[in-house]
Each structure stands twice: as C-alpha cells, then as structure tokens.
Recover the amino acids of this structure.
C-alpha cells in the first residue's frame, strides 16, 4: 500500500484531495486577480472539508459541463447546486446548504416588466442559463420565450443583450445578479423582482456517487452546521459583503 501511495505521488501521511466542480458564480465562486478560485461558498466548503481532513482542488467549468462531469463521477462534488429530486440518482445532498439565494427576474428600469404570476411573462424574451433548476411553472409555461445560454461569461452577455433591447429580462440568482450589475456599472439601470423562479433556493455542495461519498455528505453537513455557529463564519460572510 505504501509503495502504491509513493508511486502515485501521494505520501501516506498526506490528506486525500477532493475535486470540486464549479462555475464562476460571484460572489459565491469567482476568480481573483491571479486567476485563483475564491468566493464565499467556495471558501466555506474548503474550510469545512479541511476540518474533515480533506484538501481540495477546483475545476472551473461552464455549468453544463460541471453537471455532466458530476454525472460521470469525474469529480467529487459540485459547488452551489440546487436540490432537484431526480439529481439524487447521481448526487448525495447534505442536509445543510452552503447558502440560500434563489433565481429572480432582472429587467431594465427603462422597460419595466410586471411579474405577479408566471403568465405575466408570456410573449417576453427571457434569458436563462442552460441546465439550471428553475421552477416547474416557469419551465413549462408555453407562452414564455426562454432563451438559454451556456459558457463562460454568459450571464454578463445576457445582461448586455437585455440593455440592447434583444431580451426583455434575464433570470439570475438574486445575489449573483446584483454583484454582476455592479461589475458592469449597470446597478442604477436594472431592477429585479423578488418573485421566485426556483422551487428551492438552497445552494448545496453535493457529492457525486463515488464510494463513501454518501457518508461524507452526512459528515460534511454536521461539520457545516457547527462552523456556521462560529465567529469565523461571520467573518467569512463579511469578507464578501454578505
């Protein structure tokens, strides 16, 4: 066993490394000035996993590829994934989420969009993100013109398409959308509704179906709950203005 560890480049006394699959989703996951992954939920996940004895590496991918690699067990966990019952066939969800913030509609202040019910969006061109877990009502309404995109920077592209009049609105996570608006200088030109367009607003670190990950999800949840009771957790949130 020892020779096998040495041959693979891992010393017997080194902690195991988990690969986290993630997309850029600020302020929860983003890249710093050196191109290194950082963010509120990423830092939180790494801190708790380190307490459990795991090192981490991050694979930054478009969301569609992150989901696909998780299904193929080409990573150990997916960062900031919503709960969907059918995903349990390839993910182990902890009980405790990393954070809570759902998807809402952003629209230009100069072209207000009314939204009291999903049917209010009928006939409107609404930008969405491919493979996101929106509410069933939003996904199945035949009158809504959903225009999905995927790939790096797609949310920012959609905001600019909206400002150019090519979209009537964009569905984004509320905190992520507000963060992106500030980076683009659009915070005074765009508004958002609070009407939820997701059935569940919890953001999880969910583990793939590799051996032992079912128990790891349980241990992670318990450790995460404990860490959230500490001053260090409040300091982490403050670091990202949350």
């Amino acid at each position: 066993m020892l020779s096998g560890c040495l041959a693979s480049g891992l010393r017997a006394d080194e902690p195991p490394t988990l690969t986290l699959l993630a997309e850029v989703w600020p302020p929860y996951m983003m890249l710093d000035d050196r191109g290194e992954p950082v963010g509120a939920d990423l830092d939180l996940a790494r801190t708790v996993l380190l307490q459990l004895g795991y090192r981490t590496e991050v694979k930054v991918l478009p969301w569609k590829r992150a989901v696909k690699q998780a299904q193929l067990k080409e990573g150990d966990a997916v960062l900031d994934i919503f709960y969907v019952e059918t995903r349990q066939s390839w993910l182990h969800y902890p009980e405790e989420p990393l954070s809570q913030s759902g998807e809402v509609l952003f629209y230009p202040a100069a072209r207000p969009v009314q939204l009291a019910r999903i049917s209010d969006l009928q006939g409107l061109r609404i930008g969405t993100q491919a493979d996101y877990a929106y509410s069933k009502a939003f996904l199945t309404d035949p009158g809504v013109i959903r225009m999905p995109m995927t790939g790096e920077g797609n949310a920012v592209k959609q905001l600019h398409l909206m400002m150019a009049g090519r979209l009537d609105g964009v569905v984004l996570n509320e905190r992520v959308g507000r963060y992106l608006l500030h980076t683009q200088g659009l915070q005074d030109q765009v508004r958002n509704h609070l009407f939820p367009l997701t059935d569940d607003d919890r953001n999880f670190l969910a583990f793939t179906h590799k051996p032992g990950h079912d128990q790891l999800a349980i241990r992670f949840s318990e450790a995460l709950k404990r860490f959230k009771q500490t001053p260090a957790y409040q300091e982490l949130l403050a670091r990202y203005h949350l």
